[in-house]
Amino acid sequence: MAETYINPLIIQRADPYIYKHTDGYYYFTASVPAYNLIEIRRAKTLNGLAHAAPRTVWRKHESGAMSKLIWAPELHFIDGHWFIYFAATDTEELDELGMFTHRMYCIECDAEDPMASEDNWVERGQVKTDKDTFSLDATTFEHNGKRYYVWAQKDKAIKGNSNLYIAEMANPWTLKTKPVMLSKPEFDWEIKGFWVNEGPAVLHRNHKFFMTYSASATDENYAMGMLTAADDSDLLDPASWQKSPKPVFQSDLSTNQLGPGHNSFTVSEDGQQDIMVYHCRNYSDIKGDPLYDPNRHTLVKPFSYDDNGYPVFGKPVPYNYL
Amino acid sequence: MAETYINPLIIQRADPYIYKHTDGYYYFTASVPAYNLIEIRRAKTLNGLAHAAPRTVWRKHESGAMSKLIWAPELHFIDGHWFIYFAATDTEELDELGMFTHRMYCIECDAEDPMASEDNWVERGQVKTDKDTFSLDATTFEHNGKRYYVWAQKDKAIKGNSNLYIAEMANPWTLKTKPVMLSKPEFDWEIKGFWVNEGPAVLHRNHKFFMTYSASATDENYAMGMLTAADDSDLLDPASWQKSPKPVFQSDLSTNQLGPGHNSFTVSEDGQQDIMVYHCRNYSDIKGDPLYDPNRHTLVKPFSYDDNGYPVFGKPVPYNYL
């Protein structure tokens, strides 16, 4: 029997990332409302993550490039080592383009238990690309012996906040190849409020790579799109990726689920069911900047596939706690 | 059959306060890690509070006396109106005594649903006492037609951070009588790290009033004490209150439950079982100021009474999530 997941699963965690490790634990990290530190929690069940005591593993610097707005950490286990990718900046102010000024950073933990101590985490510095512009939301995956890095970044020649890029990695904090753009905001549902493509997440199923991402402003217009590539194609060739013209997941006003997005993927406890992890708001009458309203919550949703092997995400799940 | 409560119940909420209302909901509020706003959540079960989406009901001011370190809100329903008491200050800096500089404030919501909108909450100002000193952790209760206010406050003539006081109220934000001190830090377990009596909570059972409170520094030395008064005595007379010479609840190093305290009281879903609500840490190797480490978590623990009608709180409960 399938587990019943209690939603919202985790209160006030945006940009949620869940990784099921070989030790049987689900590891969870996400943006915290104060944007001031990176934490990890773990549990043997997804529902258990709601109660799992986090451990702070990294704190923002007092000043400098890693001192403000710590966003969207992801925890990856690469060749026997733990890595966290995250975005950080030196100011909450916007630049002359009206944009935040984040760059991507990588930290590494060589201890077997990533939650043992903050002292085990070492900074590996900025993950540099070919442009020195606003960068965020990096993820990574491996295929056929090659490690890929996928992220969102501003190109001053392209309208909007950020586009999606891919490159091969030389090591977990260094790119090997020149970034290529896979998607930019262009459809009407990608340019509501802001022109945005961000938050990529990669799913490998049915001989295809699916890359979901989030588009538009992070209010009720926030919606998820998807790129698809055959897994025997050249993943560094933009022509290998087909962009879905419509959103694959979006707000459901009937259940007050607003702006679902910045998803990741995991599997059920028995490993048999794919599960999407995302955040969503449940009210839109926010006072002041939505960035500082903490009520983006983490939800989990099992999903299935259509006859062509494409994921069908359906609608945001309503709350079901008692 | 008794409910099984999952602990920690609520991650990263310190100074937890749960109120079971006549509408059948448990309402929860507490200090948030950023100390920047007051939120309320509600659920029909205690376990449901772990998943209940909060609503922000008040935000700190940009500057001035209510602009920093919003601490320990409590939600009370008084004569058909909702009130929240909380401590706030204008600076994170310590004063010439090495103390924080909080005062107590009251806000009121006249709407039936306290979570409907921030706009429904009105500031009633500072709850002034006879001294203009560090004040925090107020609670209130009614007995025999009189409303009482109980809180922690600094007296410059008494060693330590704060003592416990009681006064009768003229209305929910105004005292009617001169405050009288009920307890000050004096026993060895009340003066570890800092000399502290704070976080009072009131329980009326077995023809007695029990006032629990928290003592010493908020690390693993934090522990709970108790005052007891007969419910037909003059509650404004310090002589009516007997102080327990030993802590009634303290750290359990064997289960890594460190510094339990700042409790409140509620009852089980069927109303038959008294339950203590408190926060506790699970690690002590904190980097920097513990105030800015978010990992004080809310736990709930059913408790019983001894043959004399006194509560027996036992030991902090170990974590039991999967």
Can you give a write-up of this model?
The structure is a homodimer of 322-residue chains. Helix content of chain A is 0%, strand content 45%. By secondary structure, chain A is mainly β. Chain A has a single domain, classed as Tachylectin-2, Chain A (5 Propeller), CATH 2.115.10. In chain A, strands 9, 10, 11, 12 and 13 form a five-stranded antiparallel β-sheet that branches. Chain A has a four-stranded antiparallel β-sheet with strand order 1-2-3-4, with no helix packed on it. Chain A is globular, with a radius of gyration of 18 Å. The first copy, chain A, starts with 13 loop residues before the first strand and ends in a 10-residue tail after the last strand. The mean pLDDT of chain A is 97. At the A-B interface, β3 and β4 of A face β3 and β4 of B.
Summarize the topology.
Two copies of one chain form a homodimer.
Chain A: E1 14-20, E2 26-31, E3 37-43, E4 55-59, E5 68-78, E6 81-89, E7 103-109, E8 121-126, E9 135-143, E10 146-153, E11 163-171, E12 174-175, E13 180-183, E14 197-205, E15 208-215, E16 223-230, E17 242-243, E18 258-267, E19 274-281, E20 297-302, E21 304-305, E22 311-312
Antiparallel strand pairs in A: 1-2, 2-3, 3-4, 5-6, 6-7, 7-8, 9-10, 10-11, 11-12, 11-13, 14-15, 15-16, 16-17, 18-19, 19-20, 21-22
Quickly list its features:
glycosidase (chains A, B); homodimer; 45% strand; 322 residues; 0% helix; Tachylectin-2, Chain A; mainly beta; Glycosyl hydrolase, family 43 (chains A, B)
